[in-house]
Please model this.
Amino acid sequence: MLKINSIKNISESLITYDYSYSKEIKKYFTKDKFFVEYISMNTTKIPNHIKIIPFLANVAPISWFAGFDIQIEDVDECFYNSLMAVKEEFKKYYPTLVKDTQVKYNNLIKTEYSANKSAMLFSGGLDSFTTYFRHRNENLDLITIHGADIPIEDTKQWNKVLSYNENELIIAKNKKYYIKSNIRDFYSFDVDRLLPNLEWWGQIQHGLSLTATIAPLAFLNGYERIYIASSETRDTRKQGSKILLWGSMPETDNKIAWANTVVINDGELTRQEKIEAVVTVARNTQDKINLRVCYSENNENLNCSVCEKCIRTSFGIMIAGDNPNHYGFNVDASIYQRVKAFISNGFKSPGNQLIWKSILDYMLSNNNFFIFEQRDIERQRYEEIIKTLKVQTNSEIKKLTKYQKFKLDIMGRYPKLFNQYLILRKGTKK
Model:
C-alpha cells in the first residue's frame, strides 16, 4: 500500500506531496518526494482533488506493474475513470505484468470549470512544431516541463530552452508556461526493471505523466483541450502481427481527461511525414523554423548536429529536398558517412528501427534530395544508405549485453553521479 498523507503548498507555485508506503515497495522510491512547481502561478486555491492528479498519474502506473494499492482522500471523478481506462489499455499489451490493483479513495468529486482555451506540450522539436502548425489558429498556450527530457539539475540546458522559447520569432505571440517537477527522479531504477527492456519512461510513463501534470494549470487557465504531439503511427508501430506499446499513443492519451479538459494525441504521422509538413510550411510562408531536437550532454548550441537524433532529423530534411542548415543544424556532405555509421551498427530498439524504416520507405518513393556539393558522389552515397537500410530494418534488434545492462543499472541507481561523470568526461575531451 502507498498512502497519500497530505498535499501542501510550500509557496504559491510549489506543490509537494507527503506519502508513505509499506516496506515491501520501498525499493521503488527514492528519498526525493514528488513535487510540482507551476512557475509564476498561484496554485493555493486549487482544490486537492485536482492537485492530486499529477501525483496519481505518475505513481499509478508503478502500482499497476509492481502490484500495490494506492490510498488517497479525494480525486476528480473524470480523471479517476480515465485512469482506469488507461490501465485497461496497458493490460492489453502486458496481460501478465499488469496486476489487479486499486486506487482507494474517500470521495470522487465531479468538477466543472469554464474551459474554452487550447494548450499544447511544447519542446521545440519536430513533433511539437507539426502539432503547432496544425492548430496554429487556436492561439495555443505552449507548456514546457523541466524534469522530463532535461534533468532538473541541468540548469544550463534548461536556460537554453527558456532562451529559445522566449526568442523564437515564430512562436512570439503564444503565451508560454513552465512547469518543474521530479517526475523522473522520485522513483528508483527498480521501476525500470518492471519492464524487460528497462524503458519505463518511454514505454509506459511519459504520455500520462506529461499531460496529467498540466491539470492544475488547466484548472487555472481554463483549458478545454491539451494537445500532445504524436510519436509514430499505428502502422509504424506494427511488428509482425503485434502492435508495439508506446507511452504516448492515441489508444492511451485520448482516454486521459479531467473535469472539463480532454487530452488529444495529435498528428499521427510518420516522422518523415512530419518533416515534409514542416518543410512545406517553411517554404510556403518563408518563416524561419529552428527545430530544437537535441538533448545531448555535448550540446553547446541549439543542436549538437552529431548525435543520432540530430543526424536522423537533418537527413530527413535532406531527403525532403531542403537544406537542414536552415532549420537549426550545422551539417555538410559528411552526414552520409555519419548516417551509414549509425545504421550499420544496428538499432537499439524496435521504435528506433521503425523510424528508420519510415525513412527508407520515403527514400524509395522520393528522389528529390538536397545536394550539398557534388551530385554524382552524393547520389552514390544515397544509394548505399538505401542498401544498408534494407538490411538493417529487417534485422533482429540486438539484445542488451551484460555490460550494457550493468551500465544502465549504474546510470539508474546513481543518476546524479553519472551526470557528474559525463561532465568530467566532456571536460577532458576539450
